[in-house]
Amino acid sequence: MASFNPFARRETHSANSLNTYRVLVPLTWALVVVVGIYHSLHSPDDTKKGKKLWKQANKHNTPFSQNTTVTGAFWIVLLLSQLSYVWHLFSKNDVLVTAAANVATHFILNNLFLTAWILLWTRNHFWGAEIILIAHLVNQTVTYWRHRGLPAFVHLPAVAGPYAWTLTALFWNGAVAVHSHNLPGRIVANIFIWVILAIGLFDIVLREDYILGYCLSWLTLSLALRQVAIKIIALQWIFAFTVFAVFLVVSLYISTTKYTGRDSLFRRVAHPESVDREREPLLNEGVRSLGHTLRIGLGEGPRRRDNENESMEIGEICNAGFVLA
């Protein structure tokens, strides 16, 4: 069944599958870049009320709006990191190729969802864009939990980065769709911002995923900066800075434990090799004891008993001679 599932995780991939990924992955990545750049510079020609990508964001001030400069920088870094991911599909190292190919189908779907969202967002089809983001989040969640232990060069561009963006964009786009710029909308947003924190912390702590943590830190900082600019007398920017600080501190802590070889409680983790070296003297001693036991059981035991019997016979003869004398 897995052979018919393009989303399954595999130990190896056929040549046809790899060739397909090597065509579709860079092609869909280029599609996102071209569509994104075009709609960042031009308004849609097929609708009168359409807006440029980032102008649309600045037009609708919501409790989940982000700073377009900070978020734009996030996307530049993410797209450049995805070039590294694309390049590793052509690597001569089979391990790297397999790791990249395992998430290639999800990455292609991610690019198609993102392109569709840009087209709908710039044309004011916010509810359609929200449906796309929901499907996009489902895809990213499945990718995140199905493909664990990926190298950083795969996890950041293909999983963590898009996942963090989709999670925050879902609330941003949804706030625009429901016109959440009035007082009731802001009160609801004051509650829902903690949903981002809860989901993010659950993933970061359970998976010890500091890469996702840094991505969410970047985007929640963008959210906080924009909320300060929108309305200084409000709770949303305070909450946003709090969420950003929590993500950042937890990510720094987890990355520190990773690089110092400690667990989440900052206890040093014994590596398998060091454990084996510690057990090696005990194993050698056990082998020697076992060998000694086998020698006694198979050979030395009977010979020792024969020697003892011979000694007893000689002793009896000597005693008999002494008595006769």
From TrEMBL:
Transmembrane segments: 21-41, 72-90, 97-120, 152-175, 187-206, 235-254
Signal peptide as annotated in the record: none
UniProt keyword terms in alphabetical order: Membrane, Transmembrane, Transmembrane helix
UniProt xrefs under InterPro entries: DUF1774_fun
Record carries keyword Disulfide bond: no
Domain of life where this protein originates: Eukaryota
The keyword Phosphoprotein belongs to this UniProt entry's keyword annotation: no
Name of the molecule in the record: DUF1774-domain-containing protein
Cross-referenced Pfam families: DUF1774
Organism encoding this protein: Penicillium expansum
